[in-house]
Amino acid sequence: MAEQRSFTFRRLTAEDANEVEDISFGAFRDPVDAPWSDVDFRSKLQQPQFFSGWLALAGHQPIGFLLFQDHIEALEILKLAVLPKHQRCGIASKLLTLCIETFPAREVWLEVASTNERALSLYKSFGFELGRRLVRAFTNPRNLSQTADALVLCRPALLPFR
To answer: Which stretches of the chain are assigned E, i.e. beta strand?
Structure first.
């Protein structure tokens, strides 16, 4: 288990793209769930009217993030990652809680690789339910025969949308 520390959270900005890329490359170990580049993150974060999220910090060191797209009545979580050294400290749970509590009138949905058991367990504990299965939606870019299904998970809104 990772050491216990105090963590802070703040909104993501386009200037966080390099740090978010580093976290993404450090956290995603499943070869079919490929991390994004800083260009991918920057292109999204430069459009704050559509994309947003939070950065988790240990001191001044970025250690995790959640990036989502705002679809008006629903939020789509695009990426959630925590560096391995800081996993199992409640950081991913806090990031999900921030998302759900900040937008209580929004349904939240995401796609996760069917092979990512730890993520599936986390999302289930937050009340996400299986919406549908996308067969072989994820492919290892280094081995195209290695695939995984994507599970589309959904969590209903806490409040009615107004």
So the answer is: 8-11, 51-58, 61-70, 74-82, 107-113, 129-140, 143-155
The CA-atom distances, in angstroms, between 96 and each of 80, 93, 100 are: 9, 5, 6
Q: Region of 6 please: left (phi>0), alpha (psi -120 to 50) or beta.
A: beta
Place of tokens 């959640």: 66
C-alpha distances in Å from residue 19, one per residue of 78, 81, 107 = 16, 12, 28
Contact between 25 and 79 under an 8 Å Cβ cutoff? The reply is no
* pLDDT at residue 106, rounded to an integer: 92
Q: Which tokens belong to 14?
A: 């386009």
Q: Specify burial of residue 105 (Cβ count, 10 A radius: 0-12, 13-18, 19+).
A: exposed
Distances (CA, A) of 38 to 69, 114, 118: 17, 25, 25
- Evaluate whether 130 touches 151 at the Cβ level (below 8 Å): yes
pLDDT in tens, 43-78: 999 998 899 999 999 999 999 999 999 998 899 999
Instruction: Output the pLDDT for position 36.
Output: 75
Task: Give this prediction's pTM.
Answer: 0.88
